[in-house]
Amino acid sequence: MQSSIFGNIKVGYTTVLLAAAVLYVATCAPGPLWQDSGVYQYRIWHNDIEGKLGLALSHPLYHIIGIGVKYIPVGEFAYRINLISAIAAAFTIANLFLLLRLWLKKNLPAIIAAITLALSHTFWRHAVIAEDYTLYTALLLAELLMLLQYVKTKRVVLLYLLGLFNGLAIATHMWAAIGFVCYLAFLAALLVQKQIRLRHLGVIAGLWVIGAAPYEYLIIKNIVQTGDFTATLASALFGNRWQSSVLNIGLSAKLIKENLILMAYNFPTPNVIFFFAGLYGLKKVSPGRGFKNILLALLVLFFIFAFRYTVPDRYAFFIPFYCLAAILIGVGFNLLISLPNQQIAAYLVFILALLPIPTYIIAPVIAEKMQFGLATKRKIAYRNEYIWFLRPWRTGSCSPERFANEVFSAVDDNAVIWADTTTVPPLLYFQEVRGRRGDIKIISGLISSEGSPEFNERTIEKLLGERAVYVVSPIDGYCPDFLIERYSFVPSGIIWRVVEKQTE
Question: N or C: which end of the chain has fewer CB within 10 A?
Fold first, then answer.
């Protein structure tokens, strides 16, 4: 009987994994990308596991995997890198299914939870582009699986695996530090209660160190190179300039409103009520107090971290919270089907779980028609901002390629282009990976063409005398201040040429 159940679980896990993989691979971005995702592609192309934004934004394990994928000689390089997120997302959804299936011993709550997370806007959006978030969530759900099984079986080997997975998660994203603190408190309680011994804790710590080795390597390397332990620690915790955002404790009415809209858009279904039912019934179905406490602690800490975070792309930082919310939605749905004669209601819940798909089709159209205010200061050629931000799938999305082709067709020979961090990745991709327009130099504050000239207040006059200089967007925040203050801009296709100001 036990082997039969285990066999069914294996079939269920495999089925969910393949279904999620089909969804995300089918909707995956086909090539180069904008902004951070494009920078990730650029870093992987250059075998760069550290980056230039501080250690907290290095995400070395993700980039190590990407470097391995880079050398697979099949298809477009950028597409292969995007597929890392798709496959990691599929494992996240499968791990979520497995967690609830093993916990509640029912398929339906596990399936509803898996569908809920799979179709949530922010998770889906980051499952189809080059990002490290889904790799982290796959590891987070693996951690919770090990914790669940340990609470049920008391097998210490599961704690060993918990330590390893959390170490790997640390090497992926510093979100894992939140889980680390929770697990550390749990292990300390086990040690005091003599449920584990110091040698067990030593093995857990050793495996954690092995898992986190890529991040530890970068930390040690930076300490050796700079000799500044304090600065390296700050970089490892906050990056180069995000300490105030990470430690922010202030909330504005605008921030609260935007966050509530973001969360509602991720769960545009009446099924969200099961989240509150899950909170209510968690104690009743939890296999142990430690598991319940860690689940709630993670839920609250991830929520607080994301809700008062102030970076422009903070919507992505709700993803771990959404994973925990999906778990509780599954727990809440389990309470419903535990009641007698609820088969019809269960089928209705399944249908309602699919509501996000038509929502994401309709919402961008309505928002554009109403000119709903998005948090953007400018438009990028060939990119519809409403579709880009409000529709999660990227099937056939080629705006970065069209943008780069148009720019390369418009600029003079040996030109210099100043691009912001959103638009510089596709330009450099087509120059370096596709071999387009090697005569021009593309410069930004983060990454630039090899051999680019110095671009600042002292050199700009000389550059203008020698070659054509362009900017992608002559807008504050996307263009150097000294250019905006001292020069004029003439449209040149979809970008702007820098010229001397005309005196009256």
Answer: C
Cα 80 to the chain's mean position, in Å? 17
Q: How far is CA 435 from CA 401, 425, 461, in A?
A: 13, 14, 29
pLDDT at position 503: 60
For 252-293, what is each residue's pLDDT tens digit? 898 999 999 999 999 999 999 999 999 999 999 999 999 999
| DSSP class per residue in 271-337 | GGHHHHHHHHHHHHH-S-HHHHHHHHHHHHHHHHHHHT--STTGGGGGHHHHHHHHHHHHHHHHHHH
Q: Give the DSSP H/E element, type plus range, for residue 241.
A: none
Q: From CA 130, how far away is CA 358, in angstroms rounded?
A: 25
Q: Note the pTM of the prediction, 2 decimals.
A: 0.95
Using CA atoms, how far apart are residues 483 and 226, in angstroms rounded to an integer? Answer: 33
Element housing 488 (H / E): strand 487-492
**What phi-psi label fits residue 342: left (phi over 0), alpha (psi between -120 and 50 degrees) or beta?**
alpha
Residue type, 417: I
Residues in the chain, how many?
A: 504
Joined together, the tokens standing for residue 290 give: 């430690």
Q: Which amino acid is at 94?
A: A
